[in-house]
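Researcher: For the record, we're logging two predictions in this thread. I'll number them. Prediction 1 follows.
Model: Prediction 1, sequence and structure:
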Amino acid sequence: MKKEVELIDISKSYSDNIILDNLNLYINEGEFLTLLGPSGCGKTTTLRIIGGFEKADSGKVIFDGKDVTDIEPYKRDVNTVFQKYSLFPNMNVYENVAFSLRLKKKNKKEIDKRVKEMLDLVNLRGFEKRKPERLSGGQQQRVAIARALVNDPQILLLDEPLSALDLKLRKQMQVELKNLQQEIGITFVYVTHDQEEALTMSDTVVVMNEGVIQQIGRPIDIYNEPKNRFVAKFIGESNIVDGIFIKDKLVEFSGYRFKCVDIGFKENEEVDVVIRPEDIELVTYDEKMLSGIVKSVVFKGIHYEMLVDTGDFVYKVVSTIPQEENSVVSLKIIEDNIHIMEIEDE
């Protein structure tokens, strides 16, 4: 695949606060890439450096093989949709979308054609004369996207554009945004702290923390194969247990030995064992299996969340089948659902 954007050795600090620490990243043409992480991790700064709104202290920004590090934002073939849509309140939908085309002195016929194409694309045909105040949050977001796309940019940057929407509309817009990106085929670079958004929409997820990339990969790989404790805890929920890697495909934790799929660790090496709550099945007590006492059962709408105390660890388990509090159960964990990680240096 063609590399459309490359960030090479990017560092950025404010006073003594390191925002980005020697970051290296490339983004493929036509990719939906999401920068994911907690507040202050550097994701928005990375987006702003791509757009030219921030200048890195060191490093290079490359577009299509061309160094654009010192090129002004308006000379880069990108557009941005911000968290606050910043629509012009005195202009209607049509005028908002047409604004940048008029600045470029495009003729009336071309402007009309492009605006109608964009409004069709975001399902807002018929809303041309409405002012922003008469639009819902989701409709305002669609106008902001249409305005950003009307100039046919090479890359669209999106800085937490769904955060102001309610939960139901946010989920709807996740699907719409992904469908839109696939339809127009341009590169989307998306910033969010919401793991569900990242997993739902992205081709590639870049997990960041404290200015450093923790892991890059497909959503399914990020979820199923976290590289460290931070990723395992930030993406979904995880049981992270102290373990001993006995040998290839065999690990010991909580006093029992389990088959696993991991290889390549040293024999008898201390490791972190990661098991997702939904990957544990609670079964009738069996003295030959890892067992514990159900300490709590909480109904979460479509499933139950239970805590099971085995004596040395309290496992979180998610299931559609509840167990009785204070009952004794065994934990069935198959080898494909056990993930081994090296213990990180403190």
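Researcher: Logged. Prediction 2.
Model: Prediction 2, sequence and structure:
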Amino acid sequence: MAEAAAISGASTAGAHGSAARRLLANPRVVLGGAVLLFFALAAVFAPLIAPHDPVEQDLMLQYIPPVWSDKAEPGYLFGTDNLGRDILSRLIYGAQIALFVAVAAAAAAGLLGTVLGLLAGYLGGWVDTVISRLVEIWMAFPAVLLSIVLVAVMGTGLHSVIIAIAVIDWTRFCRVVRAETMAQKQQDYVASAVTVGLGRMHILWREILPNVLPLLIVLFTLEMGIAVIVEAILSYVNLSLASDFPTWGTMIADGRKYVNQAPWLMILPILCVIALVLALNALGDGLKDTLDPVMRK
């Protein structure tokens, strides 16, 4: 028994090592993960690395240009805005909001969509019909417009933004998980589990769900990118946090007013949004190529 356990442990370790090597060999995983890690570290250690208070105003320091300009001043790497607030500090604290909303909203949408998708795909019948019709009805509404309406009804704040994104995008998880569950349901291991008398819920949560997890990881990563964009849009129209709090969408909206005299106010937060979303998409695509057995073939 001990020898069998040792062989099983070595096999598992070898499989994990092989998966890790495949991930590190994929340039999209490495690049996307590196950029995501950069933003995550900046967000976590924002109080330590931000050079200034992001909401501190000094009208004597208005429109200091970034460091690549001849008129730049020491201590303000990316310059200041119309109220003399440090742009770099606001970008760093904006990363906190963007990543927090991305993780929380993607997790909430993934949880709701995964549960409904598993039930619809495995149970079939009227359960599948009801959930599928609900998904179709829900997807008929314009996503961004629905998010704005939901936040307007619930009130501004991060909790409203997270709920709105989760309520909109659970359908993405539900459709994909339903299709994958239906495919897994036809596999031999499910037939074997039914033969030995395992219950439906046991098969669904203990047998099928682990085989759907790689797909969920990919969906979660891609959903984070969507959440970053939606949060930026809601911040842009002042439906997220208070306007003085540094979010990338708010910074873009403020910078648009002064684009002719200080274009960096709008360009820098736009670049942050683009960089983070592209990194998440690249990471998701790389994970799909690496973890999906069909894509590996």
